[in-house]
Amino acid sequence: MNERASAPTFEELFGRAPEVHATAPGRVNLMGEHTDYNDGYVLPTAIPQRTRVDLARRDDGTAQVWSADVESGPTPSRYVLGEEARGRGFLDYVQGVTRALREQGIVLPGFDARIASEVPVGAGLSSSAALSVALLRALRLAFGLPLDDVRIALLGQRAENDLVGAPVGVMDPMASSLATSGSALFLDTRSLAYEIVPIPAAIELVVIDSGVPHSHATGSYRARRAECARACALLGVASLRDLTLADLDRGAPALPELLLRRARHVLTENARVLAVVAALRSGDIAALPPLFAASHASMRDDFEVSVPAVDRLVALADAEPDVVGARLTGGGFGGAVVILVQRGRGGAVAARVAGAYEASSGVPPRVLVPVA
Ligand code: GLA
Q1: Which residues are catalytic?
Q2: With a threshold of 0.90, does the pTM exceed it?
Q3: Relative to the CA of 225, which of 4, 177, 257, 300 has its CA 20 to 30 Å away?
């Protein structure tokens, strides 16, 4: 972990050594955006950046928590377990986890925790899921909690949905809990059935943050969810997963043009996840470029979750001969792009694309993968 040198250690914060530590990664999604809350398919993979939680048990019913990423002083934040309340910044994610556990009948006696994260906030790479999953893993270890990795992911989602109040889907905590780098997690968000699909050795990942933070996105994200729900209501289905493109054509007269485009993105994106999975399984790299191009265009034109800076980053990547495909990844309205590159070329391509982007936009991007 690259922490500032002056950051206090667990011992300095709490006067004793931690009993356990756990980590969890951020994620980048290769295909399947805004499909998870529509019961669809997603295909994330873990990024090298991780969140670490050091933890020791207490028995006085309180949680004392310090985060290297937000705290400036050496004093941990504190709350009484069972009295979780929204509105305390990063602590809401921790409070969300302990409240979600209690709702499942798991009452914790107390703990001290020190959190440090390499996953950038606001880049659409699931820093919040990495925090919830790392904390749940540390709590599982410290207290011997009977939680498997899927249950940890669902508790992480509940923490964010309920206490934090962000209406996110299940992809991010599932990715943080189950994905590894070098492989993609092909997940059916309706059944939670999943499969690990190796990424062919011929390609490597590049992830570049546009520098346009997506933190303002909650309202727009909520609006997209509402639009999908409205399309379902007008078409008389419980979920967009229940429709084929032929159904959508037949139902089109019942839908305003905007909702038709939203639904079309979700349906075509689900099909692209299946096509990318088939291409990865068979090593058919040539099948990937049109799928990535169509996905980005669909997010830009039909779902309208891209922004000009991200479009520019994708166009600069697409102009590189060694690039297999590039698209916005994550919730959108800023954030990062994922680029598939011929193996061995990732560092050079990332440096050229980032340099050209900065020269044309004046905004400094961050190359997150490959790690410098
Ligand atoms: C955010 C949400 C996810 C998912 C993506 C879009 O990352 O947390 O649940 O909806 O946006 O694919």
Answers
A1: 172
A2: yes
A3: 177
